[in-house]
Amino acid sequence: MTSDHPSKPWIRRAGLALLLAFVIAALLNAFGQRSETSSAKGPAASLELTAPERVRGGLLFQARLHVRAFREIRQPSLVLDPGWLNGLTQNTSAPQAKAERSDNGRIVLDYDTIPAGQSLVVWLQYQVNPTHVGTNDQDVELWDGQSRLVHLDRTQTTFP
Predict the structure, then answer these.
(1) Total of domains in the chain
(2) What order of strands is seen across the sheet that includes strand 155-159?
(3) DSSP secondary structure of 23-76
(4) Which pTM does this prediction carry?
(5) Residue-wise over 69-102: b if at least 16 C-beta within 10 A, else e?
(6) Is 134 part of a structural domain of the chain?
(7) Which of 42, 95, 129, 147 has its CA 20 to 30 A from that of 67?
(8) For residue 153, what are the domain limits?
(9) Residue 123 domain-assigned?
């Protein structure tokens, strides 16, 4: 006949409480997936980004970039930091940029003219690579030809 040590039920309860705390933290978005909105504004345009700032490996998510032109933007380009691909796989983007290129490691997406008072909305779909953990800079800039109109600071943290 064996008897349980008096502390064993408390060890099990503490383990269950720790697991429950982890689940509650996840439900409260401590580990990501809920979208956050960041915005920046300049004299010529505003830029709004809606995407999760905290993600987990394997997660599918969408980023939405909304450009509002206060004046005509003849050669609009969205310039994305390398963190938009580091540890992420881009699945699709809509609308397609008329041209894509790299500028010193940053991704440049060129679009058609945006008339004054009009908007450009771009959706980017991603999946977080399961082995990636850490923080990436995900700044976004709006350019008109050679002139930077708006800069938006942003980081994304990836949990295992």
Answers:
(1) 1
(2) 54-56, 155-159, 134-137
(3) HHHHHTTTT--SEEEEEEE-SSEEEEEEEESEEETT-EEEEEEEEEESS-BSSE
(4) 0.81
(5) beeebeebbbbbbebbbbbbeeeebeeebeeeee
(6) yes
(7) 129
(8) 35-159
(9) yes
55, 77, 86, 110, 142 from 146: Cα distances, Å: 33, 10, 26, 12, 10
Query: What are the backbone angles phi and psi of residue 84, rounded to the nearest 5°?
Result: -75, -10
Backbone angles phi, psi at 35, to 5 degrees: -75, 145
CATH number for the domain spanning 91: value is: 2.60.40.10
CA distances from 22 to 16, 19, 159 (A): 10, 5, 13
Q: Please tell me the distance from the alpha carbon of residue 109 to that of residue 79, in angstroms, as a whole number.
A: 6
pLDDT tens digits for the chain (160 residues)?
555 556 678 888 888 888 888 778 777 766 666 789 999 999 999 999 999 999 988 899 999 999 999 999 999 999 999 999 999 999 999 999 999 999 999 999 999 999 999 999 999 999 999 999 999 999 999 999 999 999 999 999 998 8
Rounded (10°) CA dihedral 98, 156, 153, 110: 0
Q: Is residue 128 part of a domain?
A: yes
